[in-house]
Amino acid sequence: GEDVEQSLFLSVREGDSSVINCTYTDSSSTYLYWYKQEPGAGLQLLTYIFSNMDMKQDQRLTVLLNKKDKHLSLRIADTQTGDSAIYFCADYTGGFKTIFGAGTRLFVKA
Amino acid sequence: DTEVTQTPKHLVMGMTNKKSLKCEQHMGHRAMYWYKQKAKKPPELMFVYSYEKLSINESVPSRFSPECPNSSLLNLHLHALQPEDSALYLCASSQEFSPLHFGNGTRLTVT
Fold first, then answer.
1. Between chains, do A43 and B31 touch, taking CB under 8 Å as contact?
2. Adjacent-strand bridge partners of A23
């Protein structure tokens, strides 16, 4: 079946940029998503990108998509302590099914 | 604030109890979902309702029984659960080919 993989941990200093990487296997992806989950909360949609796009920027967030390598990244500029959370990469495969990566736990050191 | 509301936020139940989880959305989404999330894991799909009809059941044990009374409401009825069913239960809604919108979940503990 289709799969989404991402690294489990990332630690950065406050004010630095964070880059979270993700790879996926689905050749027919139409949408790829980034969700954020804070402790005790549900998943919050951060941003998404259509498969025919290479880049999307939304304030401090930049999403890059390399469709040839099936690689997706999320860059958070000027990372703050409030950005500490788990970030899930997700691939919408159609038929109401979304494949989630294992999640990257971002630690931001003050 | 989340646009998908789940109640209760926390639930403790014994293995012989019957309880229900509730979910409500007013975004006009025609698909509603139940996910189960264990600690430090991604959400796992349980059920999908599309236009108030059950579209997907991911081989979930019958002690979990979903119900969609109308296009805005989704329930999950629980009966004779096991301790390993303790988890965060997340409700989500969407239009097709659109992102999932999640509620904040119900933290369920089965004793």
1. no
2. A5, A71
**Widest CA span of chain B, in angstroms?**
40
pLDDT beneath 70, residues of chain A: none
| Cβ atoms within 10 Å, residue B40 | 10
pLDDT category, B1, cuts 50, 70, 90? Answer: low
Which residues in chain A have their CB less than 8 angstroms from residue B92's CB?
43
Question: DSSP secondary-structure letter at B108?
Answer: E
CA-CA distance, A99 to A72, in Å (whole number)?
A: 14
pLDDT tens readout for residues A51-68: 889 999 999 999 999 999
- Percentage of chain B surpassing pLDDT 70? 98
- The answer to whether the beta carbons of residues A20 and A108 sit under 8 Å apart is no
User: Which residue of A8, A96, A97, A104 is the best one to mutate when testing the B interface, meaning the one whose CB has the most B CBs within 10 A?
Assistant: A96
